[in-house]
DNA sequence: TGCTTTACCTACAAAGAAGTATGTAAAATG
DNA sequence: CATTTTACATACTTCTTTGTAGGTAAAGCA
């Protein structure tokens, strides 16, 4: 059986990657990162607005994925020092660039829906 | 807290999906499906050839992901009734279509490598 | 007849991602 | 001064994915 572990292609933040695709998935993979990025495509949103924009997300996932997206430089977190302290999240240039990729995944999904004759309400 | 579970957007093979992107990830997501698809882009390969083409994959993952890709119609499995029984895997038209998407993910990864100044050997 | 090759296949364990439930601080509001 | 709202934060559990470590069947070869 295959137990060989060869040389990694590259490292990022202590993790080993064998292909650029694996790296991409660290930035936009998982259930919630892409929905968050898509929600921000028209401009900055507050925490509560994101929660409304993404119907099924829990606080835990929203907050942890926002932190993850911040750490990788996909979104910016801006605190406005107003009377009710206000926080807004927006896409960085890198985040905006990822929209093309996410759109490609979205279009393939729509193609699948047609091809596989999956019923979509509305 | 958010315990609301609303209406699903659509169903496929008993699973619930809220966006076309989620559906796409069922077809090409996970660690190994995209490397397998990329390995087949130049033409059909046998099981053993795929194993050589994808250095770090185990038998378990190669075989289970080949089955998954077959089930979703991304690849075809052809058995040649020759003296040493021979099996070849190749992309279906749907599998070929996914190459565009995978390429988009690949290019974004390369962009990240440049942007984040990640060292890549060779 | 025993050994090798090809193409699988499975039980079990470990690791990682996501969900459940609950808590908190600071300011506005009644 | 008690209550509500906003924006988080964490402990714990469950679910899913991946890895480890084996095994098998069929045919050809020595």
Q: What does it look like?
A:
- The structure is a homodimer of 122-residue chains.
- The relative contact order of chain A is 0.12.
- Helix content of chain A is 48%, strand content 16%.
- The first copy, chain A, has one domain (10-115): Winged helix-like DNA-binding domain superfamily/Winged helix DNA-binding domain (Arc Repressor Mutant, subunit A, Orthogonal Bundle).
- Chain A has five helices and five strands; from the N terminus they run E-E-H-H-E-H-H-E-E-H.
- In chain A, strand 4 and strand 5 form a beta hairpin.
- Chain A has helices spanning 20-28, 33-39, 47-53, 59-71, 93-115, and strands spanning 10-12, 15-17, 45-46, 75-80, 86-91.
- In chain A, the strands form two sheets. A three-stranded antiparallel sheet of chain A has the order 3-5-4.
- By secondary structure, chain A is an alpha+beta fold.
- At the A-B interface, strand 1, helix 1 and helix 5 of A face strand 1, helix 1 and helix 5 of B.
- Chain A binds a DNA duplex (30 and 30 nucleotides) through residues 1, 3, 30-32, 46-48, 58-64, 66, 83-87.
């Amino acid at each position: 059986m295959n137990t060989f572990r060869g040389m990694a292609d590259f490292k990022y933040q202590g993790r080993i990657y064998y292909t650029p695709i694996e790296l991409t998935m660290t930035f936009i993979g998982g259930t919630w990162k892409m929905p968050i990025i898509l929600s921000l495509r028209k401009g900055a949103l507050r925490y509560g607005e994101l929660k409304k924009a993404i119907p099924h997300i829990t606080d835990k996932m929203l907050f942890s994925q926002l932190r993850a997206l911040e750490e990788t430089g996909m979104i910016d977190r801006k605190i406005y020092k107003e009377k009710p302290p206000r926080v807004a999240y927006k896409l960085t240039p890198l985040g905006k660039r990822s929209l093309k990729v996410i759109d490609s995944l979205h279009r393939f999904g729509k193609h699948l829906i047609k091809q596989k004759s999956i019923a979509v309400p509305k």
